[in-house]
Design goal:
Layout (H helix, E strand, L loop, with lengths): L21 E7 L11 H4 L2 E9 L3 E3 L2 E3 L8 E5 L4 E5 L6 E7 L3 E5 L4
Antiparallel strand pairs: 1-2, 1-7, 2-5, 3-4, 5-8, 6-7
């Protein structure tokens, strides 16, 4: 059976449901005036983003692990890990990444 070329499919990101233990993120630039001081060395290793969708928890070494983030959370995550994709053209282009739960370094708590 020949392989299907899926590169031209335009699947809306809202229709992507992460598998167990995975999180779908939209990559965003770090906000100006952020209260978190990020050293230059860390900026090369971490990326800022917004949680779009969350998979179910998962089992690891006999224990059930809950996913710590929820849709809409702002997080820092491992920059060089995960599956990347993008949608849109020009200024409308958005980058997305599917990462494992353990690749989330921190959740940004706002003072709303």
């Amino acid at each position: 059976m020949p392989k299907k070329d899926l590169s031209n499919l335009d699947i809306p990101m809202k229709d992507v449901e992460p598998a167990r233990g995975f999180i779908l993120l939209e990559e965003l630039p770090e906000p100006n005036g952020s209260s978190i001081l990020t050293p230059d060395s860390a900026k090369d290793q971490a990326q800022f983003g917004r949680v779009i969708a969350v998979g179910m928890g998962y089992f690891e070494q006999g224990s059930f692990i809950e996913i710590d983030v929820k849709e809409g959370d702002m997080v820092y995550f491992a920059k060089w890990k995960g599956l990347e994709t993008s949608r849109g053209i020009g200024k409308e282009k958005r980058k997305y990444k599917l990462v494992e739960n353990k690749m989330i370094h921190g959740i940004i708590k706002s003072n709303k």
